[in-house]
Amino acid sequence: MNIPEDHFQIDETNSLIVSHIENIESYNDLSTYSDLILSLNTVNYTFSTVPNNINYTNSYIVNGSSKQYILYFTQLPIISIDTPNTILDDPKVLANFTYSDDEQVLTSNIGIELRGGSSRSYPKKTYDLEFWEDDNGEDTHNVQFKNLRSDDDWILDALYNEPLRLRSYTSSKLWLSMHTPYYLKDEPEAKAGANVEYVEMFLNGRYNGIYNISEQVDKKQLKLKSFKKGEIRGELYKGISWSGATKFSSISNYDNNNRVWSDYEMKYPKEDEATDWENPYNFTDFVMNSSNTDFTNNIWSKFNYDNYLDYFIFLNLLRATDNRGKNIYLAKYKADEPYYYVPWDLDGCFGTIWNGTNENITDDILTNGFHDRVIKLNLNNYETTIANKWFDYRNNILEENKLIESIEKQYQFLSENKIYERESIVYPNYNYNEQTLSYLISWLQNRLSFLDTYYGDLLSIDNINLNKTELSFSPNPAKTRIHINNTNKLINSEYKIYDFLGRQIDKGEINNNTISIEKLKLGNYIIILNNEAHKLVIK
């Protein structure tokens, strides 16, 4: 077996080899071989025993010239970073970078620095990379990995405080499947957040484990309008702490000589273009201090309503405690357009918090000052709208089996491909076992059950705007059938009934003013009539 240069890396300290292999299916039957030699860029390693086959789910002992190594074959891209410099949090220092997957080998100079806050104290670091044409970063160039965007600026997320190394990956993918920018017709390449892919990383010849290589949340990702002729158009502010303006808990005067204000860091416009906090200050002041009438009439011209709904649902599904204020971006596409939220750093979620410890709380609702005011005022029948959206999601992308299947599939990949095994060689801070997975799944099931009840309670008859639709049914609670009032608009239309787990229980066509429910068990349900959700109680 011949493995070309850059498609393998060797950790001499841990006697570990991680390698790609072409046409692995051609090694399904090795029973006729008495010896097997692996050639890594012309250097030979002999298998201590000839295996029955070669696959990604086994490890192998191979003998080098003077010692034995554990050999793994990987389906993931391999990154190698080498530098004689000490990597600091600022400035970036020069390093050599190599990336290889089944499609490309990329080598480049990079500038590298540490990234993160508390995570800098972890033994496994997160890094910010910039791809350089030269040795000092005066000229940069774009690169692309898999289906991620082409750019010169990337994050290598260490995932050290994630017990299964999959929460951030799963959450990032989930947000992108739930939400798209409202201005997508004008900017078809805009994304709602950062996409990620798994890689395995070596630093200065040492295996560093599994990482997410992540796109940046920036002007380019969101396709914000550029600063032009002294005019601020697109805006981007990064939440860096939990209090102050980011949570709408307090507001302070701003200083336009400072790129940080009240727990926000200004990311765009750039420092050499403009620093002006007037717009986010005015927005925060409006949310906190405007009259109820002014807030009710104008908030959704200042903040995008669909983004608000999706982010609230996403935040509470994950119970991402850090992402109420810290770990969010406040963005604006262009002047005179509404703000919207973009999540980042999604590691403390699905039953864990920022430091990776379990927090087995499933029965609360996360909010900030903005959320609290919207909920209190029930703007534009907000409760019904968000509950309808929740149950719509529960019947597709947030369906319980789909969520669990996605998590289990990712776990099985990492486990069966022995990525957990080699991760634990260098960072044995967690047990990547079935018990840890069971905790996550159990937490998710309990969280979904609580949220189904929470959103279902918002759909009480008292919260339905009957003046708008003039649609109602009785009795409620019911036993064997319900009678629909004002059925003229519903004749020959479809009704659907769901339980509080989002599963469709019954459906049919409305031919008169009666729907039979005698087959349904006692309990609470959601019935969809005329594309509106109503709470139905059967006793």
TrEMBL record:
Residues 475-537 form the Secretion system C-terminal sorting domain. It comes from the Bacteria. InterPro entries: Secre_tail (IPR026444), Spore_coat_CotH_CotH2/3/7 (IPR014867). Keywords: Signal. This is Secretion system C-terminal sorting domain-containing protein. It comes from Flavivirga aquatica.
